[in-house]
Design brief:
This protein is mostly helical. It has nine helices and no strands.
């Protein structure tokens, strides 16, 4: 366990960041500035007072409705704020207070925005993915995973998805993956390195297949309807940043033991 006071501060910081991420999730798909104008009700346009904008608490006090027009407030707002606080705390518990924590919190915040935007709008804004690649590579010069692994992750992760996308287009004659997914996995590789980039891709593919099969089985899902791969990548990337290294150690150890037993039996 890390310092509980530091953990509390990180969680409160996550709530505040989550409030800003809600602005990004709402405005980026519309091409609007995330800086100006100040937050306002999407239904009536009335500016939101500062005390109504307190993360989670404001939503509860207002009972999920705008103070001015009483229109329902999207429950995604408090969910993003709580989720950001929980994931920031998880990163802190995993890493402790060290320099690597800062880029991991930034990475987590970016993944939350990409998860929500792709889930709702089927798009992955370049304003996040492209600067994210650069920031991830720059941070990796001084911190984990190191610039070589980060560069290989950027090229290998993005290249793998690009090859899949091109192959799908050549076989099926239509687009199966967008370039936004390619740039997003390149960004993930820049922050996490090539081993965790491929763990992310594997986990996201498994998650997407599971969700797709479930929807096909229970909801009459049409395979021609696109699944938000970016949302699955975001979920898997945050999981990989938290437990991916331990998973790889376990997996490689188990594979080595299995190969050893097979070799001994021959």
């Amino acid at each position: 366990m890390t310092d509980p006071v530091a953990g509390l501060l990180i969680a409160l910081f996550g709530l505040a960041v989550g409030s800003f991420l809600n602005v990004c999730i709402h405005r980026l798909p519309r091409g609007a500035s995330v800086v100006t104008p100040p937050s306002r009700c999407p239904a009536c346009g009335v500016p939101i007072r500062w005390f109504d904008n307190v993360p989670v608490l404001g939503y509860l006090v207002l009972r999920g409705r705008c103070r001015a027009c009483h229109a329902p407030i999207d429950p995604l707002y408090p969910l993003v704020e709580i989720g950001t606080a929980v994931l920031f705390l998880a990163q802190h518990e995993t890493l402790g207070l060290q320099p690597l924590l800062a880029p991991r919190l930034l990475f987590t915040a970016a993944m939350i925005v990409l998860f929500a935007v792709d889930l709702r709008h089927h798009m992955l804004p370049n304003v996040i993915t492209l600067p994210g690649i650069v920031i991830g590579l720059l941070c990796s010069i001084f911190l984990e995973p190191g610039w070589i692994d980060a560069l290989l992750g950027t090229l290998g992760g993005g290249g793998a998805l690009l090859a899949i996308a091109l192959g799908y287009f050549l076989v099926r004659g239509r687009e199966g993956l967008g370039l936004g997914d390619v740039k997003m996995l390149a960004m993930i590789g820049a922050f996490l390195g090539w081993p965790l980039a491929f763990v992310t891709l594997a986990w996201a593919s498994l998650l997407g297949a599971t969700v797709g099969i479930g929807m096909l089985r229970f909801n009459g899902f049409d395979w021609r309807h696109p699944l938000p791969l970016g949302s699955f990548l975001a979920f898997a990337a945050v999981a990989a940043s938290l437990v991916g290294a331990r998973f790889l150690d376990w997996y490689l150890g188990a594979a080595g033991r299995l190969l050893g037993r097979l070799g001994g039996s021959l």
